[in-house]
Amino acid sequence: MEFNATLLGQAITFAILVWFTMKFVWPPLTNMMDERAKRIADGLAAAERGKQDLEAAEQRVADEIRKAKQQSTEIMLAAEKRANQIVEEAKDAARIEGAKLVADAKAEIEQETLRAKETLREQVAVLAVAGAEKILRREIDSAKNADLLASIKAEL
Questions:
Q1: What is the pTM of this model?
Q2: Where do transmembrane segments lie in this chain (predicted)?
């Protein structure tokens, strides 16, 4: 019987060990494993969220880059348009200024021509008077000759 009593004693000790383990050791181990599983799951979820956030951020960056390129293209087009507009305005201003200079030059030429004609008339009148004086010195009636010279001067 000793064998049976030893077996029975070992079975009871084993049962106490199982009960003790299930009551005091197993729950903390289970809790630790559950917490670790939860932390691992949370970590994996956080990693997935991080991955999604990264993808979203990359998408936003790509969108911002596309917008920036589009804006830079629009700015460049506007700058080119404004440059062309400035060039056209400068050309128009130059044409107007050139036309004004030509008109001023024509007016000055006209004035110079009139002055030259007036000077020429005066010189012709002086020559005519000088010639008439020589002729009149031979003739005596100077009053009639003065009237005649005045009318010739007016005609010139």
A1: 0.44
A2: 6-26
